[in-house]
Amino acid sequence: MPSKDDISLIAHLMRRAGFGQRRDEIERLASDGYENTVERLLDPESQPDVDMYMMGRYHPWTDHPSSIDHHQSRWIYRMVMGKRPLEEKIVLFWHHVFATGNAKVENIDEMATEIDLFRDHGMGNFQTLLERLAKNPAMIRWLDNNENHKRANNENWGRELLELFSLGVGYYTEDDVKQAARAFTGWTYTPRKVVMPWKKYPWSFDYQPYDHDSGEKSFLGHEGRFNGDDVVEVVARQPATARFISRHLYNFFVADEPQVPAWPFEPPQDRTAIDTLSEAFVRGGYEMKPVLRTLFNSDFFKNALYKRVKSPAEVVASALILTGDMNGPDPRWGDLPSVQSLMGQIIYDPPSVEGWHTGKEWINSGAMMNRVNFVADRVSDTDLPGVKAIIQKISEMNGSSMNPEQLVQHCLDQMGPMEISDETRQELLKQVEIDGIASWSTEKEYKASSKRVADLLALIAGTREYQFA
Amino acid sequence: MSRTPGYIDGYFKMITTSAAGRTWHFSHALGRPTGEHNGAPDGSYTGGSYYPMDIAMAPDGHIFVISRGIGYELEGYGGDVLLRIGKTTIDENHIGDFARCGFVGPAGIAISQDGNVYVTDEFENTVSVFAPDRILAFPDHRPDESINRWGIAGSAIGQLTNPSGIVFDADDNILISDSGNHRIQKFTKNGDYISSWGKYGPGEGEFKRPWGLCLDNDQNVYVADWGNNRVQKFTATGDYTMTFGSSVDDGSDLDHPSAVAIDSDNDVYVSDWGNRRIQIYEPGGDVITALHGDVNKLSKAAEYDLGRNGGVYRQIFDGIHDAMSMGKTFERPHGLVVDNKNRLIVADSCGRLQIYIKDNDWVDPLPA
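^ Those are the sequences you sent over. The predicted structure of the assembly is below.
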C-alpha cells in the first residue's frame, strides 16, 4: 500500500500532467512508482488513443463538425476519455502559448488542424513545431501573414513570433521584426474560397516565390538571404527562447506566474527552476520530452502542490473524471463548451494572441459560481460511479462509524488529497457536526451517511482550496 | 466495375456504377443541412435534415428521416429544434417535420403496419411511437408529442441500453439492436418482450455494439455488427447463418458498418460507415461493388438556400468549379432503405439523402 505522501504526489502529478484521476487509479499509479508514472506519461503512444468512432457514432455532429461547439466537444471528450493525459495537456499548453482564435480565422476545421499539430508534435522538437506552426494556415490567417507581401510587408506574424512565441520582449529589436517579416513574405495558404454547402475548403500552406523577398537580411546577428525556415532556426536556438518557453512551462505546470506582458518587468518567482528547465531544453536539443521529464521529476515541481489556479478546462475535465460522469456516449457532451465558456475559457478561441490570463484572473464572481456549481452538482450525485467509489472507500474506514473530524478528513483525502486552512476546516466541521457521528452499519445508516458525504464533497468543491490544482 | 460520370463529347453520361451485370445510376440528392423545414413562403421546397441518422419508407412512398440535431440548444428557440423527424418524398416534395425535440438521441426508425412511426432513442433507452401526420410549424416543438413510449433502461432481459436499429417483422413485431447490451431483442409493438439473442464478443452470433438491421423476404435478419466490422445474417429465430465483410482489406472489408438493406434480388447493401461508402454484396457474400457518393448538382433545398439574398451565394458558388467534386461523396453513410422499385436511399450524415436506381439491363451507349 503506497504511503499518503506517495498518493498525494501522484495525485499532484496527474492534476498537472493531465486532468486529474480517480482515487483508485491514483493508488495504482502510486504503487507503480512516481518515476515510472512520469515515463508512462512521456510515452503516450504506449497507451491506446481515444476511440473517436464511439464519439462520432453517438454524437454525429462531432464526427462531421459544423461549428466551433462541435470541435470543442470533441476536444473535451479527448481530455476526459483519453488514456494519454499529458499528450492532451500539452495540446492545451501550446494552444495557450501559440494562441490562435477562430473569431478571426473563421475556419474551425483549420483551427482543429492546428490543434492536431500540437497533438502530433507538441511533445517533440520545438524547432520542428515552430516550423510547422509557421506554415499552418490557421496561424497564417490569424497573424495576417497572407497579407505579408514582398512589396508590402505585414509584420504581425514576424512580431508575435519573436514577442510571444519565442524570445519575449527585450531580446530583439524593431529591425529584427522587420527582417523576420521580410523572410516570411510569400508564405500564405490556399485556396482562399468561401464555404461550400456541405464542406469547408481545406486550406494548405502555399509558398509563392514571386511574392517572397529573397534579398539579404540581417536578423539577430545573423546575415543571409533568409527564408522563414532560417528565421525559425535562429529563433529556436536563442538562449532567450529557452528561458521564455521554460517560464511558460513553469507557469502552466508548476505555479502561477504573472501574466506574460509583465514578464519583461517581473522576474520569475523561481529563477533557479527556469534555469534548470532552460538547461534541459538546450541540452536535450530543444526536444520537449527531456525538459518535461526534468520538470516533473524536480523538487520545485514536487513542492508546488496547489500553487496553480485550475483553468476552466481543468475544472470541467477533472470533475468528470473524478466522478465518472459522462463516461461514454451522453447527450450532454454538446453542453460542455458553453459550461467552460461561462467559466471564462473558450477553447479554440482565446481572447487574444497572448492567450488566456491565468492564475487568479481565472476567478471572478460569475466564473466562481459556475466552477463551484459544476463540480458540486456532480460530487453530490450519489449515483455516479466515482462518487459511489468515494463513499464506499470512506465507509470502510474507522470501523462502522466516524466522528465529524474524521469524516471531513476522509472526504478531503478522497477529493485530493487536499490540504485546507484551519478556517476552511472549521467551516466544514460546523456543517458536519450538525448531524454528529456518521454510521455505516445498517442500510438506512449507509444511505444517510452517503448523503452526508455527498453534501460534504459539494461543500469542499466550493472552498477556495479546491480552485487550485 | 466502371463509373462514368459527366459529359463526354457533348453527351451527358449517366453517373453509373456497374459490376457483375448490375448497374446503379446515381439519381439525385435530397435535402441539405438547414433549420428550414416546411416549405418556403414562395412555395419552393427546402426539407433539410441535420445529421440524418436513419430513414424509413411508408407504403405510400413517404420517407421519414430522423435528424439527430445540432447537439445543443439552438439559441432563441428553447431547444435543439433541429432534432426531429422529417417527412418528405423521393422527389423532395417536403411535407414537414414532426416530433421536434420529442427525443434525445433518436437512432433508428421503422413503420408499423398501421402506419405509426417507431423511433429508438439511444440515450433515453426507449422506443417512442408517433402518428405520422402531425406536422409542426417551425420552430414549434412538443416534447410530449409521442402517442406511446416504452422501454426500461438496463441490461436484464427485455431492458435496453443504447437501442439503435429497429425493424418490423412480418408479424408486426419489433426487432431492436440493443446496442449497449450487444444483443438483438424482439418485442411486440407495445413493448412486451418476446425473445433475444447474442452477447458481447467477436464470435459467430456475438456482437460489439450492433447498429442497423433489416429483414429479407424470408424473414432472415441481417445485423450491422458495428464493432466487429461485419454484417451477420441470422434466421428469424436468431440462428447464425453467415457473415458479410471482414476486417481484412480485401475489397469486401467493412469498417464499422452502420446499416444494411436488401433489394428484391437479395443483393445486400451495407453502409460502410468507417470507409464512407456503400458496399454491395451478392446474397452469398461476395462483394459486387461499392458506391462512394455521386452528388453532381445541388438539391432543391440547397438551390433554394443559395438563391436567397439576391443570389449572391449562387454567384459565389458558381465560381467554384470543384465545389461539387469535393462535396459529392458520402460523409458517413447512416441509414439505408431500398424501396419497391429497387431505388436505394442513403442517409448521408452531412445532411442529405443520396438516391440510386438499380438497373439490371443497362447498356452503356457511350462506353468509356
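The first strand of chain A starts at residue 187 and ends at 190. Residues 23 and 414 of chain A are 7 Å apart (CA to CA).

Shout if you want it in another format.
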